[in-house]
Write a structure and sequence with these properties.
Structural class: alpha+beta
Number of helices: 5
Oligomer: single chain
Strand content: 35-45%
Shape: elongated
Largest sheet: 5 strands, antiparallel
Length: about 210
């Protein structure tokens, strides 16, 4: 798994104009290829009257799925430059659709490449990006007497508690970078006089 990746901060739209043609870039996070395809279909339906609805998406923290479409523009002048812009910005789990309303002036191949790639780059700048970092899920089990102080101490050290469950003991779900596990294990033993249990689980991604 990749240690971290970047994705778009939120779904949104940014529009630019090049030689009277309108280029409307819609961006959205996409956890799966199906989500990306559904987003493309929704934009195409909304702008069925547009000259072109070109698209590109990257799914997978390692960019394992990369697809693009020129939607009738000359081959390699729309979808590919959009995809290249997403990859150049290290974007993952993201879909971009650039809707073009033709303004009557032909841009030529070079102009189209700059317009479509530029529309995606400007949209990323306008909407912002966020970094997602890989971490290890960890379960801490502690007695009720120490649970309150431990929760306070975890927050004080910047640890996000993802879930708390109460039973015979208190179970806290947290996320840890793999490199922090040995130090955290020692800290936990010290903070709870060796009474807390720590079980490591699978891996996931969270905001850095």
């Amino acid at each position: 798994m990749q240690d971290e990746y970047r994705t778009v901060a939120r779904a949104g739209v940014h529009e630019t104009e090049v030689n009277r043609s309108r280029f409307r870039c819609a961006l959205a996070p996409a956890a799966t290829e199906r989500e990306a395809q559904d987003f493309i279909a929704a934009v195409r339906k909304e702008h069925a009257d547009a000259t072109h609805n070109c698209w590109a998406y990257v799914v997978g923290a390692d960019a394992s799925v990369q697809k693009a479409s020129d939607d009738g523009e000359p081959g390699g002048t729309a979808g590919l430059p959009m995809l290249q812009m997403l990859l150049r910005r290290d974007m993952r789990y993201v879909v971009a659709v650039v809707t073009r309303y033709y303004g009557g002036i032909k841009l030529g191949a070079g102009g189209l490449i700059r317009a479509y790639g530029g529309a995606v780059g400007e949209a990323l700048d306008a909407l912002g990006t966020r970094t997602r970092r890989r971490f290890r899920l960890a379960t801490v089990t502690v007695d009720h007497q120490r649970a309150g102080k431990l929760r306070h101490d975890l927050r004080a050290t910047g640890r996000e508690i993802r879930e708390v469950r109460y039973g015979e003991a208190v179970t806290l779900e947290i996320g840890l970078p793999d490199a922090d596990v040995p130090a955290f294990r020692a800290w936990l033993a010290d903070a709870t006089a060796g009474t807390a249990g720590l079980v490591l689980g699978g891996e996931a991604y969270g905001d850095a």
